[in-house]
Amino acid sequence: MDTPRLLIADDDKKTRDFVAAFLKYKGYDVVQACDGQDALDKLETEEVHLVITDLMMPRVNGLEFVKKLKTMRPGTVIIAYSAFGNYEMASNLLKAGVFFYLEKPFNLDELETHVKRGFEHQSLQSQTYRAKPALKNRALMPNIIGESSKMLSLFELIEKVAESDSTVLIQGESGTGKELVARAVHDLSNRKTRNFVPVNCAAIPDELLESELFGHVKGSFTGAVANRIGRFEMADRGTLFLDEIGDMKPNLQVKLLRVLQNRELEPVGATRSKKIDVRIIAATNQNLEKLVATKQFREDLYYRLSVIPIFIPPLRERKEDIPLLVNSFLERFNRNKKSKVKGIDSDAMDLLVHYDWPGNVRELENLVERLVILKGFGAIGVNDLPEKFSGVTISPPSESMTLPDSGICLNTVVEEFENNLILQALKKTGGNKKEAALLLNLKRTTLIEKLKKRRLDTIATSFA
Ligand SMILES: Nc1ncnc2c1ncn2[C@@H]1O[C@H](COP(=O)(O)OP(=O)(O)OP(=O)(O)O)[C@@H](O)[C@H]1O
Ligand SMILES: [Mg+2]
């Protein structure tokens, strides 16, 4: 992107001119439109990456405009403002994909901060949109949120896989959405009107799993008081989802392999086998190849299952999806819990984007739920986030340290490293502890405590 280009739509010429002049002065290339329709017309021919819009406009109003724009150019970052905002409007805007919503009157510097962040967000996404493949069925997977190129490739793969009847093996860390993907494959397939039957192989005791899967006949073991059909049969002409397949014990692995090979099964205690027509989708958060290498998982079964492997990347490898996930979870939990949380401010969003999410989307979803409950209304800020988010934006030291063979005293080294950064912060701020604490994302009192404890106060005052 050369000069960043944006469009401002507002029917009030005075405001529009004023904002346009300010942003031009700040180095942006600005296109003006006098209402939603005019903006849509201009966007047919003008290439802009960010749109600022008023909400109360004649002809096509703000919300309508936003919706149309999102269909026409999904990658455009939109900042909306209004003097008549209310919670409902803010929530609808978020849902429609608005990046930030400002209430009038706002100050121009504030607007510029959001514009800057909007462009950053846009450049993160731009690759995604350039690579956007034609997805026929994206609308049929509304539960799976994501716009990153990795997720778009995943959607494409799901579509292709759904058309076939082949066995699928879904791998990915915990909380990446394996079950969601399995359901999507079923929902897009010819089997969609039949059952999707999940079985969690790790949750069912080993001795019961066989009868759970294949069923049993009355009297075949103590407790088998009646004939019972297994999950395979429940999934007849539908899909069986074998979750946590990595936890299946070797003796059952053999039996499963036989069923997959012969497409027929024998209920426990039965003398005759039954034909089955079931599509298998298996999933695991373990590295199955490793389990195969260490002989904990049968190699032949692994190949049977991984006819079509699907790998879901961890959230930290598709950080551009984080704002979208946060906003849609906010919207959902607001609705479910009748809360009125208006959004999340950009500093807090930055911290969320920089965090590594070891628990992936599940961790993010749980956090947003907690925040919505605790906050209730207003906008979520940095102070609302749990402790672990503070400081995540500090980049690690450029030269990574090699551990000497003789070892180190971790506490001393870490303390020295901390001291060094603390003194740098004080130097930068001319000894101002409040500002230094801000630079370090510490409370002022915590900083003062550290200075005292480490006898750094005299050095600290020397910077003043
Ligand atoms: N892309 C996504 N969009 C929306 N929600 C998602 C997405 N990915 C995961 N989730 C949500 O995160 C939670 C975890 O997803 P899911 O249960 O499918 O993960 P999993 O990979 O099966 O995890 P585990 O290995 O721990 O079983 C669910 O509530 C799911 O709805
Ligand atoms: Mg799961």
From TrEMBL:
- Name the gene: fgrM
Occurrences of domain Response regulatory (ranges): 5-119
> Where does this protein come from, organism-wise?
Geobacter metallireducens (strain ATCC 53774 / DSM 7210 / GS-15)
Q: Which UniProt keywords apply?
A: Activator, ATP-binding, Cell projection, Cilium, DNA-binding, Flagellum, Nucleotide-binding, Phosphoprotein, Transcription, Transcription regulation
InterPro entries, alphabetized? AAA+_ATPase (IPR003593), AAA_lid_NorR (IPR058031), CheY-like_superfamily (IPR011006), Homeodomain-like_sf (IPR009057), HTH_Fis (IPR002197), P-loop_NTPase (IPR027417), Sig_transdc_resp-reg_receiver (IPR001789), Sigma_54_int (IPR002078)
Q: What is the protein's given name? A: Flagellar biogenesis master sigma-54-dependent transcriptional response regulator
Q: Name one GO molecular function term.
A: ATP binding
In this UniProt entry, the residues modified to 4-aspartylphosphate are 54
Q: Which CDD domains match?
A: AAA, REC_YesN-like
Tell me which SUPFAM superfamilies the record gives. Answer: CheY-like, Homeodomain-like, P-loop containing nucleoside triphosphate hydrolases
Residue span(s) of domain Sigma-54 factor interaction: 144-373
Domain of life per record: Bacteria
Q: Name one GO biological process term.
A: phosphorelay signal transduction system
